[in-house]
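Researcher: Next entry in the queue.
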Amino acid sequence: MAQAAGIVLAGGKSSRMGSPKAALEWHGSTLLRRVTGIVARSVDGPVVVVSAPGQELPALDPAVEVVADEREGRGPVQGIAAGLAAIGSRAEVAYVSATDVPLLHPAFIRRVVSAVDGFDVALPDVGGYRQPLSAAYRVALVGALRELLAGDGTSHGSLFERSRVRHMSADDLLEDPTLARLDPALLSVSNLNEPVEYERAHALPAPDIVVEVGSRRQRVGAWSLGRAAVAAGVTLDKHVVAALNGDQIVCDPELPLVPGDMLAFMVVG
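Model: Structure for this entry, 269 residues:
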């Protein structure tokens, strides 16, 4: 059994944004592709996208699973229940994310997931707000969620009242030295609700990535593996792969990159 899985909720109406957030362009990719990729980098179990019934999604990594809400209009609680049910016995804990958090960092996810130990939910409280869509839940809570939904309960508060919740302040989160170094402002929870917020985030400088090509090392700004390769003068083809942070071998040009990443491009075959 995996330690942790990931759930990304994509079924929101995006009424304030004016168009589906999941399909919004993000530097050659989409918001949903970026967030699912970051979550996948952070957990050892399956990653599940929960969509609205009949919702059309942008292209995703083939390893990402997609399930649809059983009923429309029940909010995030319904989506979390659907995601936990899809994970089943394959993991003990699931990190739950919204679609609209392109600055999410794997260090944040790992910090929150590790805090579930001895609790049912690890719930960050950042900027004066609880962050139930940047939280980790025990998969076994699916039964309690179904009971709430059967009784027309659609609020996170109802679940938290009957669960062992570890509330995590910004200071609690930043006790992790890796997170404090790579995401000190906790931008991992910064979501995009309106076009001006999307435009502001989209205009941010790309993450600073260390790239090695043979004996040459340089720093480039890149949101994805493909953009890093272009910046470093590397042509991605079937003979080129990259080692991400010294161990994981990757070749997907849409693989999302984050602050602190290191890539070493290599010719194989």
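Model: The first strand starts at residue 2 and ends at 9.
Researcher: Noted, moving on.
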